[in-house]
Write a structure and sequence with these properties.
Distance between the termini: 26 Å
Shape: globular
Largest sheet: 4 strands, parallel
Number of helices: 5
Number of strands: 4
Strand content: 15-25%
Structural class: alpha/beta
Order of helices and strands: HEHEHEHEH
Radius of gyration: 14 Å
């Protein structure tokens, strides 16, 4: 099974409104990116969308355009406004984002009522960030 097929099998098990984390690569609790710059393989997600998404779904990948600039609420709004289909598949490239950025995006989804129409997949979320997010989002969503 290739990576796209693995992602598809994971997504099929996720319900809309659910947030899950998956490891694309095992990196440990103190994960850091080895590659600077654009570490998100957008071609992989474009191919995935073309092959597996229905006409009722769209896909977005939340990531930084510049590895040195943190995402802002304006960026979160841009990602959310790009979701036009009735249902959404959202990949969040956690390894290049900080906990505040991930939490900010999840809160933006909650505040716009987009979470219940979305399957959110947190890619490569380091364990320490997971524990922090789980604690700070308790009562808002289950991780």
């Amino acid at each position: 099974m290739d990576i796209k097929e693995n992602l598809k099998s994971i997504i099929d098990k996720v319900d809309y409104g659910q947030v899950v984390k998956i490891a694309m690569q095992e990196r440990g609790a103190y994960a850091v990116s080895e590659v600077q710059g654009d570490i998100v393989n957008m071609a992989l997600f474009d191919d995935f969308a073309a092959k597996y998404l229905s006409d009722q779904e769209d896909l977005t990948v939340v990531h930084r355009k510049d590895s040195e600039l943190a995402l802002t609420p304006t960026d979160f709004s841009r990602f959310i406004k790009g979701l036009e289909a009735p249902k959404h598949i959202i990949f969040v490239a956690c390894l290049e984002l900080g906990t505040t950025e991930i939490k900010g995006f999840l809160n933006a989804l909650l505040s716009t009522d987009m979470l219940e129409k979305s399957k959110v997949i947190l890619l490569d979320l380091p364990q320490l960030e997971y524990m922090t997010l789980r604690s700070s989002m308790k009562g808002k969503l289950a991780l």
